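[Meeting: bench + compute handoff]

Bench side (C.D.) handed over the final construct sequence. Compute side (W.E.) agreed to return the predicted structure before the next meeting so the bench team could plan truncations. Sequence as handed over:
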Amino acid sequence: IDGGNDATADSDCEIAPARNLQEVSLASLWQQMDPYLDNYSKERKLQRLILAGIYYATNGDYWNESTSWLSYSVDECEWFSKALPEEEVCDENGFYLILDLHSNGLSGTIPTEIAFLSLLEKLSVGGNTLSGSLPGLENLSNLGVLDANGNSLNNTIPQSFGQLLSLIHISEPT
């Protein structure tokens, strides 16, 4: 997500082809009910929609810890994360840098829409029971750490990951 992205999160916006229309519909419905929606920029609306989609696609109701996820009154940068205390989940503008939900009971699939979190530097979803394939993450040019180890993901790392020049650590799916 950056200021130059023309994507919007208006209620009629398609953010990417959905693997599961129900998950996208639930995320969209959640966002439409947000009493603070008008307070967010288009980029932040998109970010919140993507995060809600991740919640629904990975069965967030059954996570080990999901404090404040989908809370309208809590900034998404304050939603539960397993990021280290010295790690900043978001930058000064409120855009996600770290999505760390390792060993947290996630199941289901990693939605392709995660690739729209374009400033993401760390994605840690290892130690869960995620299935399917890693989505194409070539848009995540700042991604330096990817941990998907300990899931039931396909053992194939997409060829497009070769475009991730910042990637310095990858824990392959097992």
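W.E. noted at the follow-up: Residues 2-18 have pLDDT under 50 and may be disordered. C.D. will use this when planning the next construct.
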